[in-house]
Amino acid sequence: xxxxxxxxxxxxxxxxxxxxxxxxxxxxxxxxxxxxxxxxxxxxxxxxxxxxxxxxxxxxxxxxxxxxxxxxxxxxxxxxxxxxxxxxxxxxxxxxxxxxxxxxxxxxxxxxxxxxxxxxxxxxxxxxxxxxxxxxxxxxxxxxxxxxxxxxxxxxxxxxxxxxxxxxxxxxxxxxxxxxxxxxxxxxxxxxxxxxxxxxxxxxxxxxxxxxxxxxxxxxxxxxx
Length: 225
What we know:
The protein is of the alpha+beta class. The chain is 17% helix and 30% strand.
């Protein structure tokens, strides 16, 4: 079975000013910062709920990480199909913005080797190859940018699938890229078990994403008398 040719790595001719901005972003001591609209944009530290949702997503698709097993070797749940390069909070500069998506992936059938980092400044690496899928978990400090400037940057860069996890709202929304924006193709909640694109071979159990937001997860201590 043939696979699609890997797209060429995007060429990046950074201006001196942009190189300075990217270098300042990548070298900043606070790892929870993005470069948006030419400015350093702080993000609050991930809370337990936020980190738990990231981990639940990564755990659900983790068996798809890396090339398929060799012929005759043991095969995981994903078999030899639908393999991905996956990461969490990876530095990417795409669509004119510097971002650290919560979870991100590149399809191996389109990118046979992991996306390379481009050095900016003193050997500071950033990925400029647009991913095929991005997942952002909303928080108070990032909700507006995830639905605004980052949404537009992902669309400009050609990110085909964009997931947004809204913990307070209890929803995971799957968006597919169109020529002008993104459109909803699927929505799931805590009680759902379903397959969500682009991971057709994975049956997602949604409850772990929202476990910290469910009333049953909060137990008040009993007072002994």
